[in-house]
Amino acid sequence: MTCPTALEYFDAFTSRYRHYKGGSWCYEDGCIYRGLALLHQATGEARWFAHLKRLTDAQIAPDGSLAGYRIDEFNIDHILAGRCLFHLADETGDPRYMKAADLLAEQLSRHPRTKAGNYWHKQRYPDQVWLDGLYMGLPFQIEYGLRSDRPDLVQDALAQLSRALELTRGPAGLYVHGYDAAKVQGWADPETGKSASVWARAVGWLAMAMVDICALVPASAPNRKTVELLQAVAMEQRRSGLWPQVLDAPGLEGNYEESSASAMFAYALMRATELGLGEWFDAGEHAYDALIRTRLETHGGVTRLTRICHVAGLGGFDGKMRDGSQGYYLTEDIVEDDAKGVGPLMMAAAQRLSARAPAE
Description:
This protein has twelve helices and eight strands.
């Protein structure tokens, strides 16, 4: 059966998409929202904004409160979905969107931090900094700071990023998944506090955070560190165009090529090229094309994005101990059509469209 084009797939996926966590505000939905906002900006097509508004309007009340959201949960993941609020506010003028952004900014103003000043990943993960959280919180804080004339918020986010990079530096220019400032977690090295392995999607979150920050604040962006990271990422790309689940262990038995991280790298490499940081567009486009060609599979008339790691983390979760070892990352479920893969693939598609006419 003929596979639809990427844009047809995104349209069909979003038409049938229901909120990831029963309607509660969450980062998984935020991945889709970010993808839709970028597709709208890249194409000008009303369908992408219509999808975005339909999904978010079910979660955002007139007073800016968010469905299922509590500040005192102090979960940095919840901030990511807020990035779409700026686009919604710009397009509609409806004040509820910036009220919602104010609410998320209030969480950040009270969010617990390590002694060095970095946000905890979650209140239930005290003193822990994960690469995932850098994407979840820092680009939102920077854009909110720019819009509200709060340079202190911008500088704080940049300082947090710089510290986190030093704390999580790993092999070959890459970064490990997490850092425990207390150095008490079972997954953390007792001397450095670092986790053991380089998980591809964690580095994907980091790469997207860094290129987005470079776009938001070009005068003070972490350009050199972004270039170094993307050079290291490009070195790990396989001939297929994709990247392995455990990024620093390509020869590890069972180490499969994972779709969500590959989509994130595709976006980051093409975006960085547009920003003038390097010449990686061909590598990013190769990854994007490989995902469309090999990972969109149609069965029973429904096309799905395949080979996505469902979830991975550090520490205990759902009765499972996630020890951060290379082998651990190969034990998590592999699923289809997860928002953490589809959203970044939308972002990559939007970036490709903004750079050149699609060849679909």
